[in-house]
Design goal:
This protein has 270 residues and is mainly alpha-helical. 80% of the residues lie in helices and 0% in strands. Helix 6 packs antiparallel against helix 7. The protein is globular. It starts with a helix and ends in a 15-residue tail after the last helix. 28% of the residues are buried.
Length: 270
Amino acid sequence: MESSAEDVQVAAAWNLRYLACTCVTLATFWTYDYISSLHEEWTFLLQSRWTKLKALYIVARYIPFFFIATDLYMIFTPNENPDKCRMLINIYSCFGVISLTCSECFFVLRTYALWNKNRILLVTMMFALFSTIILFIGIVGCYRSSHRIYFFMPFLLLFMFALGLAFLTLIRVIQSWRTARSPLRAILVKHNMFYYACSLFLSAVNVLIPVLFSYVSAYYSVLEHLQVLVLAILATRMHLSLWHSDQHVHDSNVLLYIPMSNMSPTDCMV
């Protein structure tokens, strides 16, 4: 009995050590990504006009810093107060949900642009997105439900949502491949499909790991963390790339002062 208790403590200690190393690795990766794109980012922030997309970019780019900081604080500052623990994990989870929502919103708006600003499609996509996000809000807290279905269901819906956006993009490309061949549109489609492939893969991992390996529940948060950060990096990097590509295609002095309502659907994405 005594030996069994010691084994549990040793296993818990190794789990905590693994989680700490993984969290530091992801934080380092995020910091490296931020530093490596600092010049392009500040060029975009200083030269682009203020739009809703720019505000969305800023939120999507900087919320993960708070997400990572809260995670590091929870791991390296042990706390035995259940109320404070619950509050910290709720804050951490909310940052993650906000980041994930912003990342997905970029590609909802890109799909909306590809479909020539179809408002019915936009409302449908936003409804599907927020229905999925509501389920993510339901799994926050210090103690996860022992029922694995409550954990993987939001990721299953996110998988289906990404698959739906991918199909919408493919359908639009097939419909207009002869008539719409602008460089920006080609970049937009390539970005979209790569993002959906990553989102589908990460969502599938978050669905399958809890089902196939229920005994590794301590690592579920690492998989969530990875998906949130990777999708945030892809969404913001791709928006930066699209904006900089636009500067080479069009006269930047003209584009900076065109209202969003007067832009072509693809131009509205930059």
